[in-house]
């Protein structure tokens, strides 16, 4: 077989490098809808992938079956059973079959002697061994193994397997100790149409489950799957965020929501740690804090962390409670953890206090971005109503007021990235390359807080065009900073530039 007629990603795909010629792999599947990220346009943190609909998955199976039946000269439904047995590994199937056809066929549970299409028969004087019915004119059926039972027994058996047990790939003959597998044509002949549809759906699922390069979109009620070249072996060097055709973004490695730039193994560790330490951390999701200067209560009702006390006008950072003045300059240090305390810690108690302090530094920022993203979104929902009024009372068109929605979308995404930079940083071994990472983190954070602050400004229709331009500029800037950060961390992963303080 030449690689040109390969229809899908080959099973030995896992060794292919991302930047190597992925064209070959996808060359023949282009007619199945657009490849979402094309090679030439890929950014360092993007992976090539494509969304597959249920129809695509069915078509791909049909084509793969036909390719093999052309080689083996067997009926399609038998080849389908063979391929399913060999987990769609065509090379393995062909090798085994060429080597010893009888054993390959037997292992898969098919018999090739009788390849006539399945049919129901009335057999005079027949009594069903399962239900002992011997009615004249009763429909009966026998698989190629010649285990004949009445049609009702076959139907009851199959329906139970499909509906109750969710089986599809390997439903064996009900005859005692018989391992002949029922194929699609037999199932279609015997069961009701709704049961057959269920059976086909289950078969599609096994196709996806058996293929390490295809995963279902984890979004509830989404029927798309995504095909991606990333393999489990590569998860140390790449964070494969993919998007299905319905726009759901998820990690191909672990099926969680996008968590770039933090690699899957660290995400798992971090979430476990947060769960275990949830009481120690005791992070207050409360939306109020006291002003350090005048002790009056300050409420946070947007995502922006640049706070101003209503009473005394003191401007401070919600995260570290430090004066905001330092946050807008190169002095900005809010994201960086000062390791001093842990270095000086001598006794066990001081050490454990320092390690808790370190964890809380990262955890608070992680949790804060998560909450801020929610608040940004809520604030937008309130603003949206205002925008609708604005639109009704002025010349503004619907399109013209969309800039705010776009800004909030970018903001929420950037906060998600920032959130995971803190989990990533928690496991990073400090050295000269982490400085660059922290600088990028700081720059993105500053850009995000500035945009967030602007989005909270009251909307004055007279000033709208200035505000709009300002927000548009800041939105572009946030995206630029995010790209810089993600590109650098992705390159670092690939070059194995990062060292971790845990085993990964
Ligand atoms: Zn029966
Ligand atoms: Zn049998
Ligand atoms: Zn989806
Ligand atoms: Zn992941
Ligand atoms: Zn105050
Ligand atoms: Zn701060």
Beta-strand level of the residues, as a percent range?
A: 5-15%
Under CATH at level 1, the class of the largest domain stands as: Mainly Alpha
In the CATH classification, which architecture of the largest domain applies?
Answer: Up-down Bundle
The termini sit apart by 38 Å
Number of strands: 12
Q: Per CATH, what is the topology of the largest domain?
A: Four Helix Bundle (Hemerythrin (Met), subunit A)
- The total number of structural domains is 4
Radius of gyration: 30 Å
Secondary structure category: mainly alpha
Order of helices and strands: HEHHHHEEEHHHEEEEHHEEEEHHHHH
Q: How many helical stretches?
A: 15
Q: Level of helix content?
A: 40-55%
- Main beta-sheet strand count, sense and barrel state: 3 strands, antiparallel
**Overall pLDDT confidence:** 85
User: Which sequence of strands runs across the widest sheet?
Assistant: 1-6-5
Question: Given the C-alpha coordinates, what overall shape results?
Answer: elongated
Q: Uncertain spans, ≥5 residues at pLDDT below 50?
A: 1-34
Q: Name every ligand kind in the structure.
A: zinc ion
Domain RING-type: 124-338, 128-177
Organism: Saitoella complicata (strain BCRC 22490 / CBS 7301 / JCM 7358 / NBRC 10748 / NRRL Y-17804)
EC number: 2.3.2.31
Catalytic activity: [E2 ubiquitin-conjugating enzyme]-S-ubiquitinyl-L-cysteine + [acceptor protein]-L-lysine = [E2 ubiquitin-conjugating enzyme]-L-cysteine + [acceptor protein]-N(6)-ubiquitinyl-L-lysine
């Amino acid at each position: 077989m030449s690689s040109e007629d390969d229809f899908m990603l080959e099973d030995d795909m896992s060794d292919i490098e991302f930047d190597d010629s992925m064209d070959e792999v996808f060359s023949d599947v282009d007619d199945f809808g657009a490849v979402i990220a094309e090679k030439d346009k890929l950014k360092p943190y993007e992976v090539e992938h494509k969304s597959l609909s249920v129809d695509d998955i069915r078509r791909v199976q049909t084509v793969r079956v036909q390719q093999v039946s052309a080689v083996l000269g067997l009926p399609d439904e038998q080849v389908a059973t063979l391929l399913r047995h060999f987990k769609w590994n065509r090379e393995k199937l062909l090798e085994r079959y060429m080597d010893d056809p009888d054993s390959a066929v037997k292992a898969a549970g098919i018999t090739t002697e009788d390849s006539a299409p399945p049919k129901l028969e009335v057999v005079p004087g027949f009594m069903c061994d399962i239900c002992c019915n011997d009615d004249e004119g009763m429909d009966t059926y026998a698989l190629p193994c010649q285990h004949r039972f009445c049609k009702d027994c076959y139907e009851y058996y199959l329906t139970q397997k499909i509906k109750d047990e969710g089986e599809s790939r390997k439903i064996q003959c009900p005859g005692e100790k018989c391992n002949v597998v029922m194929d699609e044509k037999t199932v279609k002949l015997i069961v009701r149409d709704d049961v057959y549809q269920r059976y086909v759906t289950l078969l599609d699922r096994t196709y996806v489950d058996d293929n390490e390069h295809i995963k279902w979109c984890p979004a509830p009620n989404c029927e798309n799957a995504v095909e991606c070249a990333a393999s489990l072996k590569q998860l140390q060097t790449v964070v494969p965020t993919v998007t299905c055709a319905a726009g759901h973004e998820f990690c191909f490695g672990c099926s969680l929501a996008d968590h770039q730039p933090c690699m899957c193994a660290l995400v798992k560790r971090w979430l476990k740690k947060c769960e275990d330490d949830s009481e120690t951390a005791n992070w207050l999701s409360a939306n109020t804090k006291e002003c350090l200067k005048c002790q009056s209560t300050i409420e946070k009702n947007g995502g922006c962390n640049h706070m101003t006390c209503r009473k005394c006008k003191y401007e401070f950072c919600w995260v570290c409670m430090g004066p905001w003045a330092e946050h807008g300059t190169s002095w900005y240090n809010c994201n960086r953890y000062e390791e001093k305390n842990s270095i000086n810690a001598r006794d066990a108690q001081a050490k454990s206090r320092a390690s808790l302090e370190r964890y809380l530094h990262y955890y608070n920022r992680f949790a804060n971005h998560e909450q801020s993203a929610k608040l940004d979104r809520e604030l937008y929902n309130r603003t949206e109503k205002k925008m609708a009024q604005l639109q009704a009372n002025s010349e503004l068109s619907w399109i013209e007021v969309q800039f705010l929605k776009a800004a909030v979308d970018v903001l929420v995404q950037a906060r998600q990235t920032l959130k995971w930079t803190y989990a990533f940083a928690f496991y990073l071994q400090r050295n000269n390359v982490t400085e660059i990472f922290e600088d990028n983190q700081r720059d993105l954070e500053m850009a995000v807080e500035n945009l967030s602050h602007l989005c909270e400004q009251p909307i004055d229709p007279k000033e709208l065009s200035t505000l709009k331009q300002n927000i548009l500029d800041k939105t572009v800037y946030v995206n630029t900073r995010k790209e810089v950060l993600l590109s650098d961390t992705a390159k670092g992963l690939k070059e194995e530039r990062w060292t971790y303080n845990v085993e990964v």
